Amino acid sequence: MKVRILAATTAAAAALALIGGVAPVAQAATQSFTLANCAAALDGQTFNVSSGNDLAVSFTSCSATDTLTIGNVVDPTTTSVTISGAYFTRSNQGGTWRIDGWDGATGPLPDGTYTVYYVFDSGVPYLGGSFTVAVGGSSPSPSPSSGSSTPGPSPIIQQFGHTVGTTCDEAAPSELDWAGVSSGGWGRSWAQWMNVGLGGEVCSRTLAYDAASARWVHEGS
Fold this sequence. Notes:
The chain is mainly beta. The chain has helices at residues 168-171, 194-197; strands at 2-5, 12-13, 30-35, 46-49, 54-59, 67-71, 80-83, 86-93, 96-102, 112-121, 127-135, 156-161, 187-191, 200-210, 215-218.
């Protein structure tokens, strides 16, 4: 299962990240991002972090039964990963997962571009994929929605593994109907992330934010 969010949210916040008892130095600011849902979170996301800053990615909601793992390979099973001197870890705070990044010792994230793989295991075909952290560029800003002159979230692609003998609408996990999105709208497709990166058939739909009604909808709804 895979869900894609293409737009980062808020910009830097001047606070320190305290993860696993290790705090970055006071000179480093924490650049914070908030995503809408644990089950609709990271795949294809790029977080642009300014030089000298740390990273904190949090979620507005997620199931306490979900398990988040991260790593530098497809289908990771670890709680933290170091990539070329950049250290990323996950923690659960108040029932919601959080991902933090710094240098793993006392400083901010080193400049560079890092690919982190993740898995959300919720007992159904997992939501897996990767996200990118780009350090040293300009600070992030909201991306405008298609067809709108005001900032807003970009479309989201939701996917899960297709089950033989059932339609996509019948097999769709109810937790993908988040933020008041109605059920349905699924079609069959193919994705590389299936079968541990070998590819396979998936059920897919696209969610878009309707500014006029201030809610998420799927194509055809």
